[in-house]
Inverse folding.
């Protein structure tokens, strides 16, 4: 009963480096989301997907790219990391349907130096 | 545009005391309202949600919240705090049927004193 799994759990990058965060869900959910959590700012939506092969921008998409090649996976990429991208990143998924709750992973703590 | 305001970023209560976490929202349409809880080093979990119907909503772990349209509020309460309630609590509002329309508050961190 894994739910939503995020890898890695922790990562330290130097400015300008790239990386990909992986999110996998085993609940056959149609919708997947990437959020970032910063102190005093709650959660902000970066990108989301309403189905395999589709992605859309959220509130704070700049500096990030995403892909959803398979229904169960949602990848978040940072092409050239910046210190402002130091944050905790959460992936979530939900079923299609009114007011379906989000199921969250345990987060990835990213530090960019 | 929708928004959520959570009054107080930190709240400390004694074990056994009443817990009251405040949430006010603004929305141009009838909102859907949620409370999520985040325990240390974990993701968020749904506590309860209001969609339509009964305005008093009961959730897990003895929490409940009341939707008051006239006050645009959705405060979270629990009659008697337990040490295990120590966590961060997020109120969220949605104007749409999917999570892409969800707006979170900034969170309130609850500490429970023995």
């Amino acid at each position: 009963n894994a739910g939503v799994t995020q890898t890695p759990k922790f990562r330290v990058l130097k400015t300008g480096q790239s990386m990909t965060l992986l999110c996998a869900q085993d609940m056959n959910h149609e919708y997947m989301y990437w959020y970032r959590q910063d102190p005093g700012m709650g959660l902000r939506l970066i990108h989301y997907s309403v189905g395999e092969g589709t992605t859309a921008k959220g509130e704070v998409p700049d500096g990030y790219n995403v892909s959803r090649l398979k229904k169960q996976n949602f990848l978040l990429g940072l092409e050239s990391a910046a210190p402002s991208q130091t944050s905790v990143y959460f992936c979530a998924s939900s079923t299609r349907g009114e007011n379906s709750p989000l199921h969250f992973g345990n987060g990835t703590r990213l530090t960019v130096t | 545009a929708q928004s959520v305001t959570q009054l107080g970023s930190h709240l400390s209560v004694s074990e056994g005391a009443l817990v009251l976490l405040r949430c006010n929202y603004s929305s141009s349409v009838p909102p859907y309202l949620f409370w999520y809880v985040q325990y240390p080093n974990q993701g968020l979990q749904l506590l309860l949600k209001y969609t339509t119907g009964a305005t008093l909503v009961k959730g897990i772990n003895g929490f409940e919240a009341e939707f008051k349209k006239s006050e645009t509020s959705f405060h979270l309460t629990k009659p008697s705090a337990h040490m295990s309630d120590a966590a961060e609590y997020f109120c969220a509002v949605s104007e749409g049927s999917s999570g892409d329309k969800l707006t979170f508050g900034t969170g309130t961190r609850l500490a429970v004193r023995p």
DSSP finds no helices and eleven strands in chain A. The mean pLDDT of chain A is 93. The radius of gyration of chain A is 13 Å.
